[in-house]
Amino acid sequence: MTTGAVPAEPGTLEAHLRSQRDAGRKLLVPYVTGGLGEHWLEAIEAMAAAGADAVEVGIPFSDPVMDGPTIQEASQRSLDGGATPLGVLAQLEDVHAGVPLVAMTYYNLVFRTGHRRFARSLAASRVSGAIVPDVPLEELDDWSRAADDAGVETVLLAAPVTPDDRLVRICERSRGFVYGVSVMGITGERQSLAQSAAVMGKRLKAVTDKPVLIGFGVSTPAHAVEAATEADGVIVASALMRRLLDGASPDELGALVAEMRAALDAG
Amino acid sequence: MGEPSPDGRFGEYGGAFVPESLVPACQELDRAFRSAWGDQSFHDEYLQILEEHAGRPTPVTDALRLSERLGVRVLLKREDLTHTGSHKINNVVGQALLARRMGKHRVIAETGAGQHGVATATACAMFGMECVVYMGEVDVARQALNVFRMKLLGAEVRPVASGSRTLKDAINEALRDWVASVESTHYCLGSVTGPHPYPWMVRELQRIVGDEARDQCRRMLDGADPEYVVACVGGGSNAAGTFAGFVDTEAKLVGVEPAGGAAIGRGLPGVVHGSKSMLLQDEHGQVSESHTISAGLDYPGVGPEHAHLAAMGRATYVPADDAEVLEALQLLAVTEGIIPALEPAHAVAWVARAAGTSELPEGSTVLITMSGRGDKDAQQVMDLLGS
After folding, report:
1. Closest CA relative to residue B265, chosen from B294, B301, B296
2. Are A12 and A100 contacting, i.e. CB atoms less than 8 angstroms apart?
3. Considering the entire predicted model, what is its pTM?
4. What is the pLDDT of residues B290-345, one digit of tens each?
5. Which pLDDT tens digit goes with each residue over A68-83?
6. Rounded CA separation B168/B122 (Å)
């Protein structure tokens, strides 16, 4: 067993999100697929400048089973452009976002690179957190030991079908924040926010003091406000990546993030 | 080949690397299968259906003319004679019974060659269940006959356009469906791959192949076991079921992988589709595409228990290339009057190549699992042979 039951000092990511939240702000974490197009690094900076509290960076994988068509296409295009895991991380060293970065990827890239090497590479690129959605609690130890040692906060996901007792364990082991999956399904834009989003936020807030963010299907400023009613904030991915795939500039992505920021601030 | 560890491991391979949304479903399936597999009435119904609907037990054929040609005695376990034409029906009947026991009325499946899809569609028709089959676009084109069979059986076939558009991508898409539908839907995975409990469960549902064959061989060989037991390996379900019957005998176990998809022969440890196993991948961990004429073996991974058997040295895994597979298919046709599917033709190809060498000495007795019949491949083979 690892240090699951021992309360660790909050890391950079959690400390930052807590302080923003405790100041009365709803949290906004936009996502960018690493290596996608020529302007993805500028997109990160534009999103941060537009009011993001952290930025999630996808490290593209060939077989992203939790992702819908938009992120699949973004990942494939990035890979076709020659993106590699360590290459994406190396490029991140030059980013000056001013907010914490969180990497999202699938486990085989971590496993192939090596747990310790991957964790150290994240830390070297000043990436504070990591989301690896195909590593559930039962398979977490190898990665989390390496991540903890490197000072990388591993964010765990909770799903609508997660039973209450398991939800508590997920919240205890999660670092940085807890990622509440809004709906049973994969990532992607949706017409309306699932009713399960509010339930997820409420259930998580009832069992943890860590920041609780809701993701999957948060597509519009109105969705963001709705999802952040119970939870502390939202993660927005496909809605932004759709625009980037369609040729939007970093400034245009920043403008959408600013709209979401304004909506969240207005409540 | 016993139970995996409580965390679903065969040695260092296996596990359940699934998103949180699927964890409760995998745990539920583990409990349901454990309970069913320990319940005599479940076994009775499973066997009754396989006997009355699927034609079990399948025979073992003494391949006299092929044996004479190769200088080794070849026995064929005839899964090609089952209803729907391959061993896939064994697994599917078990999983359909399990789905019904769990109260799930919708079944999804992935398919490569279409044999697992046809078997699943068949079982769903028998049980009155809704059936959706994911199939890569490349496979939809090269296995048109099976696509039509699935539709006749009432299943919906959803072509998959992502990635390599073959079996790997069909599994991705089935998993994406399952994440959204898991409360009402059973994912009927067709091989000994995927997260725990699938590799174990599917091997158990296929062990009837090996258990029958062992008894049949002993009757034919005056109580002896064959010295070699050979089966083709993509994900590895017919091999796992066959090997399960012989793992505690002296028989040498040989799995034959397609040369262009040899996960054990040419892969490295990796994690895809929920389990840790051997995997064709690049240096960064991106999954590679496999390349073979056999849609049913066109998969860059392999079941974790095979990775374990290879690591322990209990089974060996060898390649067969497309050209020798086509030759083997024709050899079996003209010597035995049996047109095998391209998948088991890989096993025949290795036996034909190795016979008379130190790998398979002259006079040896070898059992080959004839996992499916060649009807589905007739058009493709006709095109390949140009006649």
Report:
1. B301
2. yes
3. 0.96
4. 999 998 899 999 999 999 999 999 999 999 999 999 999 999 999 999 999 999 99
5. 999 999 999 999 999 9
6. 23
The answer regarding whether domain A26-266 maps to CATH 3.40.50.10860 reads no
Instruction: State both tokens at A145.
Output: 């030991």
Q: Report the helix count and the strand count for chain A, using DSSP H and E.
A: 12, 8
CA B268 to chain CA centroid, nearest Å = 21
| Alpha carbon distance B78, B239 (integer Å) | 13
**Closest residue of chain A to B22, computed from CA coordinates:** A161
Active site residue A53: no
To the query of whether residue A164 is one of the catalytic residues in this protein, the response is no
Domains recognised in chain B with CATH numbers? 10-49+87-198 (3.40.50.1100), 57-86+207-385 (3.40.50.1100)
Peptide linkage before A64 cis (omega within 30 of 0): no
Which ipTM score applies to this complex? Answer: 0.95
Give B-chain residues touching A68 at CB under 8 angstroms: 176
Burial call B68-97: b when 16+ CB within 10 Å, e when fewer:
ebbebbbbbbbbbbbbbbbbbbbbbbbbbb
Contact A109 B287 (CB under 8 A): no
> Measured at the alpha carbon of residue B215, what is the angle toward residues B209 and B216, in degrees to the nearest 5?
80
Give the C-alpha separation, B204 to A254, whole Å: 54
Is A28 in contact with A53 (CB distance < 8 Å)?
Answer: yes
